[in-house]
Amino acid sequence: MLRHAILILSGNSFASLLLFARNIVVARLIPVEDYGIAATFAIAMAVVEMASQLGLHQLIVQARNGEDPRFQAALQGFQLLRGLLSGLLLAVLAGVLADFMNIPEVAWAYQVLALVPVLNALQHFDIHRLNRSMRFRPMILTGAVPAVLSLLAIWPLAAWLGDYRVMLGALLLQAASATITSHLVAEQPYRLVLDRAITRHALSFGWPLLVNGALLFAVYQGDRVIVGRELGMLELALFSMGVTVTLTPTLIMAKSLQNLFLPQLSQETDPRSDHHAALCQAVVQATLLSGAVLVPVVQIFGPWVITAALGDRYTALVPLLGLFAVQQGIRLLKNGPNLISLALGHSIDAMLANGVRVLFLPLAWILVVQGYGVVSLLLMGIVAELLGFALSIVLVLRRLELSLRPSWRPIALTLAMMAAATLSAVAPQAGLSRAADGAVLLLFAALSISSGLLYRHFRTSRG
């Protein structure tokens, strides 16, 4: 099991860090305001994913008939249909999105970007099916190869174009190469089928994930929309870089945890067994540790990354990195309970937990309009993520009648550490801030020691 965990984490880390490096290089090579425009491409793509996210990749892992070639072909056919509709949606909405962000001259770029969801929809689902038997290399290669090509393309694109179009070209190359790679590493022939029964099954499984996609758009992109619309492209560039620095490791850990634990949880036939209960405790403790480790890592290395990689243009971001890290770290905590529910086919729980975060967006928008700035936006996000985590815990406890008593201490230590990190970021006095930093490190050490059920799971599992 430890071997699989290392493979998944290293593979996902390699691809994500390459894409992180790509974003850093783009930010270095083009003007700051152009990077703000490039950041809106992520918002445009999120609109498309929001409207078409049905969790088909998770379904082929979770479903009992996931090895059936016809089932896979039907999912691939449904995926292509949704990709075509998503591309059409983005092409139609391009002008509306550009006007809303106060950059109407960029509408053509959103129309070109409409090719990306179509290319993504042509990927071969073998890379996800093979995860059922704990074979992760095809999926890892499909992420890593495009990331390498996308990074290498930045320098010639920058020499040729020199503005936000650099990111547009890199995104198109990444999508095309990912699709090609997924077919090269596949084992089964690529087939497309439209099956009404399987489509109904996919819709039944995926409609909460579709709603959750809309909520995730608000969660991941809502803050950027507020900053870009109300504060301008320069502030959006700084804010987007803060999200990039902290969201990259968050997504690495979230994806790795899902790849590692969802197949194990889905294979459990008796959700009331002692073995399943122990596995659930290990999943919760793994997400606590992964969310907690983000905070000291960003506190120690974040300022160096900003100043060394980007120079003086982004130094205004450094004091805010701690709040970005806390928000992303708490967001990651929800993955444990949500993974447990997803493995049982209850995809609605993630939707409900993210809904809490969305409810706070109007208040955050009002605070920004009233002049309270980005700090108020981040603090509102932290409070909302805490409430969402609490709800996700309540839902899984009620769903399984599971006792989290063995994990209450790690949960308490994690929340105390997040509180100390928030205090460090907003403390008006340097002495108080340093004391809070010390508390963060001590609490993280205590959390690491108290996560015994996670370590036991790795010792006793095969592989």
Automatic annotation (TrEMBL):
Record bears the keyword Transmembrane helix: yes
Q: How does it sit in the membrane?
A: Multi-pass membrane protein
Q: Which Pfam families match?
A: Polysacc_synt_3 (PF13440)
For this UniProt record, give its keywords in alphabetical order, as a comma-separated list. Cell membrane, Membrane, Transmembrane, Transmembrane helix
Query: Where are the membrane-spanning stretches?
Result: 37-60, 80-101, 107-127, 139-158, 198-220, 232-254, 304-326, 347-368, 374-396, 408-427, 439-458
Q: Which InterPro entries match?
A: Poly_Biosynth_Transport (IPR050833)
Keyword Transmembrane helix (UniProt): yes
One Gene Ontology cellular component annotation? plasma membrane
**Main location, first listed in the record:** membrane
This one is known as O-antigen/teichoic acid export membrane protein
Q: Could you tell me which species this protein originates from?
A: Cereibacter azotoformans
Q: What is the lineage of its organism?
A: Bacteria, Pseudomonadati, Pseudomonadota, Alphaproteobacteria, Rhodobacterales
